[in-house]
Amino acid sequence: MSRTPVQEVYLDHAATTTPRPEAIAAMEAAITSVHANASGFHTSARRAKNALEEARERAAELIGTERRHDVVFTSGGTESDNLAVMGAAFASRRRTIIVSAIEHKAVLEAARSLARFGYAVQVAPVDEHGVLIVDRLAELVDGDTAVVSVMAANNEVGTFQPVGHVVETVRSIDDSIPVHTDAVQFFVGRDLDVTDLGVDLASLSAHKFGGPTGVGLLYVAAGTRIESMMVGGSQEAGRRAGTSNVVGVLGMVAAMEETARARARFDALAGAERDAFEAALMAGDPTSTVTGADVDRLLHFSHVRVPAVLAETLLIRLDQGGVFAAAGSSCQSGAVEPSHVLTAMGLDPDAARECVRFTFGWDVEPGTGTRSAQIVLDTIKELR
Ligand code: PLP
After folding, report:
1. pTM of the predicted model as reported, rounded to 2 decimal places
2. Whether pLDDT at 288 is above 70
3. Are 317 and 6 in contact (CB under 8 A)?
4. Residues 303 and 158 sit within 8 Å (Cβ to Cβ)
5. pLDDT in tens, 64-91
6. Helices (H), the chain
7. Ligand 1: which of 185, 215, 217 to mutate, judged by most atoms within 8 Å of the beta carbon?
8. What's the pLDDT score for residue 328?
9. Which of 89, 225, 228, 284 is the most exposed place for a label (fewest CB within 10 A)?
10. How far is the CA of 205 from the centre of ligand 1 (A)?
11. CB–CB of 255/113 below 8 Å?
């Protein structure tokens, strides 16, 4: 007997977004017209190089800098974060890296991996809402600080971080210390203006805002020194060796443009669905709680704790019911360890194992919020 197909609801846009049609169109056009190696000398290579440099200029504008040289194209968020943290540390004579406790592993592990080269890592705590305590970070900054890294918005709970305040604080102590922000989740929800924000380094990843996977960028402010982590080529002005991913970059920049253009609409739509989802969920199960509900957070993020239901069990049952969500960082899924973000916020490990993240996308259908909340409620009832 054939089973009735379930209607699928993709609520895992923090893991990766649905590609935007504009990005797909840009890549389809590029794969035939500008596929040549942008480092070559012939006309076809120059065409690819020109397309790459035009895209760099547009990307620079879209993140608030006038200098296209400030944009280094990479293979995504992980590489951008690694390059920022490790690249800045290696370019410095100082030996301490300061990170917030809720950074993505691409920052945390990059910092920790430097221990074998004699670097130390200092971790600045967050409060119970998942927001960095800037005063506590300030206490860690000293003459040995090589780089400070604080994300713009957290990838598990969606809370915005006070990056502008971090920049001011670090500058007031020592204005030679570079400040990096991982803006991988932030960009989909808010305009990023690196000049206004005052950061020296900022990471973006295309697949988090409707672009392709495997491409991203690192903003490197003029005068900020980083050592390349990739060697064997002089691409990206010596800051990232490797043949340029022109097609991916064109897809990313098309997605950046569309994301920036349609942001107000995205906020209204995804925000309304997220709010409807949380309202329906809380009404149906008053024991559930929303993480970060009292602070500024990404409008398309809903991170909820469902007491007495293991996240893994809930996710498996939701998957069978056609609702795709995640427990914490997608990169940690499958791991039994409770999320470092939640434990940093003071949740005990058992409570942390009862948390699930639902993230809405630009293509969300109206009504998805209430419909999926009902599926979650039915599933919770079955499991309890
Ligand atoms: N930083 C944050 C905040 C993320 O959420 C992610 C992806 O989950 C990354 C970095 C890594 O990005 P990528 O998947 O492009 O390597």
Report:
1. 0.96
2. yes
3. no
4. yes
5. 999 999 999 999 999 999 999 999 999 9
6. 21-33, 43-62, 77-90, 105-113, 134-140, 163-173, 194-197, 246-261, 263-284, 311-320, 340-344, 349-352, 368-383
7. 185
8. 61
9. 225
10. 7
11. no
What is the full DSSP assignment across 261-320?
A: HTHHHHHHHHHHHHHHHHHHHHHH-TT-EETTTTS-B-TTEEEEE-TTS-HHHHHHHHHH
Q: Is the pLDDT of residue 335 over 80?
A: no
**Reported confidence tier of residue 332, pLDDT bands at 50, 70, 90:** very low
Pocket test for ligand 1, best of 208, 300, 341 (most atoms within 8 A of CB): 208
Distance CA 307, CA 167 (A): 38
Q: Is 333 in the pocket of ligand 1 (CB under 6 A)?
A: no
Atom 14 of ligand 1, nearest CA residue: 77
Whether 331 shows a pLDDT value over 60: the answer reads no
Task: Identify the active-site residue in 331, 351, 375, 377.
Answer: 331
Residue of 78, 107, 341 best suited for mutating to test ligand 1, as the one with most atoms within 8 Å of CB: 78
**Protein residue closest via CA to atom 13 of ligand 1:** 77
pLDDT of residue 5: 63
Give yes or no: 355 in active site: no
Q: What percent of the chain has pLDDT over 70?
A: 96
CB neighbours of residue 94 within 10 Å: 17
Q: pLDDT band for 336, please (50, 70, 90 cuts).
A: low
Q: Of all protein residues, whose CA lies closest to atom 10 belonging to ligand 1?
A: 77
pLDDT of amino acid 7: 86
| Nearest CA-CA partner of 217 in 87, 81, 24 | 81
Using a 6 Å cutoff on CB, does residue 195 contact ligand 1? Answer: no
78 CA to middle of ligand 1, Å? 6
